[in-house]
Amino acid sequence: MLHFSRLLDWRFWFALKPSAIGEKTVLAVVICFFLLLAGVVVFRVLIKIKKKNPPLVKIFKKFQKMLSTMALAGFVLLFLGYEQIYLLGAHFWFLVWLLGLLVWLGFIVYHMVVKLPKEKSELEQKKKFEKYLPR
User: Fold this and answer.
1) 71-105, pLDDT tens digit by residue?
2) Number of structural domains, the chain?
């Protein structure tokens, strides 16, 4: 059974010998990680559709790499926690995983907000310049 009150207890997160993970919790976490893998497929399709827009494809590839890496790492953490392996199966690794996901997402958003407009303008200038060059 999923006990949300345990999520607020620091002893739950920092116990080196992890407690058993319930079946419903495992199912919920597996569904979340499969949703991340579904996001990988969605971004792969978007990359094929938008291949004429290199800056946007670059952002999609960053999202695809992040989702695939974090889904794989999440499945490894889930396995270690399910098997209750000392230290490696501790619950705080999920917090580290979540922090890594948020930091990586922050870098991607930074790239989208700061660098993507510059890349788009440079691409437009290059297209305007190449329009007048002989082929």
Assistant:
1) 999 999 999 988 888 888 888 999 999 999 999 99
2) 1
